């Protein structure tokens, strides 16, 4: 079945991403201030606009050229907003990178995007600071590089180039959960469409305030925690590291009303709320990865006055679906699709359309869809088919009322003699053991149709392999599952499980 949101499509009034953020400044809605959660220092909306024009002026004076790549490898600092907006308005392309990545990963990403300028801190690996193919700008001191203060010391740009809405505004990296990350190109048109869908579906206004805990290099932080709140005149409090104790303190200190984060952030939020804290929270949204039903139920119960729910998005496509306050959505649903989005559920083997309630691969179309991976034509061809549909790689189903449910990830499915088995089939049985704190089931890939399921288990010290095998024996139809105890489950900053890292720990052990 094809699902289309029949509401009128969103009309995009501007041509560039910086205009979208600034378009209402002076017309009843002002770009809001950003507060550094570590120091309390504030940057006003007026300063953000002025400083962004200084960034644009510095780039234009360097004559790096249209769509030249300016890479930013910074934690969540207030300065990121003015840098990004300045890059957008100059006609250059922004590339957001995780400054905590290993030096070899950062070097590869900088080369792949062909960065001309890198804006970072002196804490980045020295081999990256010494890169010769780009100019390095430091927001702090400590290395023989141009300082950000010097970089922006010139006058603010008064005349800006006209931006082609089909030019690349930003390059974000894919999550890299099952394979190395890939550079995703998003045009100004894509970014505006993504921001419009956030603005359309999530009721943000100037009376709200936002805690920017999700990393800005991730789509969740970039769209939902930085630019959408700024557009709506909301104060944004930044966090340069993910620290849930500090986050809870900041929510109370600044009376934060809106936060969005990955599932690992939600359990401590629920516990803090249950203890009588976080009374200011009115909008709690989870995204970046699927949340388990127990945690979702705890959030709903703890914050009955708040709008809570989750959405579904890819870095390649923001947003696909979201839970609206009046949806009355069933537990586990990621809501109905957004305005302007088309979606199909297809059989991953033969491509036929699935009926309501049938599981298949989710494929989508819409104006926020990436044009592809930078310099990766083969990967782009595997992502977007000849009819323009983006193949998400996610498995899901739609009920009769149009609610979407995510049921798995195609690459994570376990194949045994040609039969697909979802990891959660094993995981749900193992989670019933009280002593199990976390579990992730993945599989080796030695043979095309014969994988070895492996349960990676974090326990409290008392759980045994025998208990886990007994739990799985309640489903005699399931194949044998190996058990590996680990201290923790590796996750991305957005909370996605890094299965590729888990499998590295058992490389070759179960390949007989």
Describe this structure in words.
By secondary structure, this protein is an alpha/beta fold. Strand 13, helix 10 and strand 14 (283-286) form a beta-alpha-beta unit. Helix 2 (45-62) crosses helix 3 and helix 10 packs parallel to helix 11. The model has no long low-confidence stretch (mean pLDDT 87).
Short description:
The chain is α/β, with parallel strands linked by helices.
What is the strand and helix layout of this fold?
Layout (H helix, E strand, L loop, with lengths): L1 E3 L12 H6 L11 E3 L5 E2 L1 H18 L6 E4 L6 H12 L2 E4 L6 H11 L1 E6 L5 H4 L5 E4 L7 E2 H4 L16 E6 L9 E5 H14 L8 E3 L6 H13 L4 E3 L5 H11 L3 E4 L1 H12 L8 E4 L6 H10 L4 E8 L2 E6 L13 E2 L4 E5 L13 E6 L6 E2 L3 H7 L6 E9 L5 E6 L4 E3 L2 E3 L1 H8 L5 E8 L9 E7 L5 H8 L9 E4 L13 H6 L8
Parallel strand pairs: 2-12, 4-5, 4-6, 5-9, 6-7, 7-8, 11-12, 13-14, 14-15, 26-27
Antiparallel strand pairs: 1-18, 2-3, 9-10, 10-20, 15-16, 16-17, 18-19, 19-21, 21-22, 23-24, 25-26
List keywords for this structure.
8-stranded mixed beta sheet, 27 strands, 5-stranded antiparallel beta sheet, GMP Synthetase, Chain A, domain 3, 512 residues, 28% helix, Rossmann fold, alpha/beta
């Amino acid at each position: 079945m094809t699902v289309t949101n029949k509401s009128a499509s969103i009309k995009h009034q501007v041509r560039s991403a910086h205009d979208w953020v600034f378009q209402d400044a002076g017309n009843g809605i002002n770009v809001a201030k950003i507060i550094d959660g570590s120091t309390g220092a504030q940057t006003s909306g007026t300063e953000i606009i002025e400083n962004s024009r200084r960034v644009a002026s510095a780039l234009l004076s360097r004559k790096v050229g249209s769509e030249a790549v300016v890479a930013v490898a910074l934690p969540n600092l207030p300065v990121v907003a003015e840098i990004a907006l300045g890059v957008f308005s100059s006609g250059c392309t922004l590339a957001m990178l995780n400054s905590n990545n290993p030096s070899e990963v950062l070097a590869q990403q900088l080369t792949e995007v062909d960065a001309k300028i890198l804006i970072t801190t002196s804490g980045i690996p020295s081999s990256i600071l010494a890169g010769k193919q780009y100019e390095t700008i430091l927001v702090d001191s400590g290395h023989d590089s141009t300082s950000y203060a010097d970089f922006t010391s010139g006058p603010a740009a008064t005349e800006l180039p006209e931006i082609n809405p089909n030019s690349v505004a930003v390059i974000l990296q894919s999550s890299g959960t099952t394979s190395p990350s890939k550079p995703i190109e998003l045009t100004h048109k894509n970014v505006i469409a993504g921001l419009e869908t956030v603005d359309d579906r999530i009721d943000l206004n100037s009376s709200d305030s936002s805690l920017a805990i999700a990393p800005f290099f991730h789509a969740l932080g970039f769209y939902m925690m930085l630019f959408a709140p700024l557009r709506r005149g909301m104060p944004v409090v930044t966090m340069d590291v993910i620290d849930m104790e500090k986050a809870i303190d900041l929510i109370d200190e600044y009376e934060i009303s809106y936060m969005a984060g990955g599932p690992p952030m939600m359990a401590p939020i629920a516990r803090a709320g249950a203890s009588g804290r976080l009374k200011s929270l009115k909008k709690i949204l989870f995204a970046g990865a699927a949340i388990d039903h127990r945690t979702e139920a705890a959030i709903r119960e703890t914050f009955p006055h708040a709008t809570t729910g989750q959405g579904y998005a890819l870095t390649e496509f923001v947003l696909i679906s979201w839970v609206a306050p009046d949806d009355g959505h069933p537990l586990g649903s990621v809501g109905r699709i957004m305005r302007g989005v088309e979606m199909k559920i297809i059989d991953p083997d033969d491509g036929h359309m699935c009926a309501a309630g049938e599981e298949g691969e989710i494929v989508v179309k819409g104006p926020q869809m990436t044009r592809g991976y930078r310099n990766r034509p083969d990967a782009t061809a595997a992502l977007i088919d000849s009819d323009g549909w983006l193949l998400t790689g996610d498995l899901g189903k739609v009920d009769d009322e149009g609610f979407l449910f995510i049921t798995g990830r195609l690459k994570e499915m376990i194949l045994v003699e040609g039969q697909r088995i979802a990891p959660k089939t094993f995981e749900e049985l193992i989670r019933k053991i009280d002593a199990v704190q976390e579990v992730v089931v993945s599989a080796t890939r030695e043979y095309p149709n014969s994988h070895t399921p492996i349960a990676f288990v974090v326990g409290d010290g008392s759980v045994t392999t025998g208990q886990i095998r007994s739990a799985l024996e309640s489903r005699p139809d399931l194949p044998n599952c190996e058990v590996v105890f680990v201290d923790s489950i590796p996750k991305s900053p957005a909370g996605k499980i890094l299965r590729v890292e888990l499998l590295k720990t058992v490389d070759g052990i179960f390949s007989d």
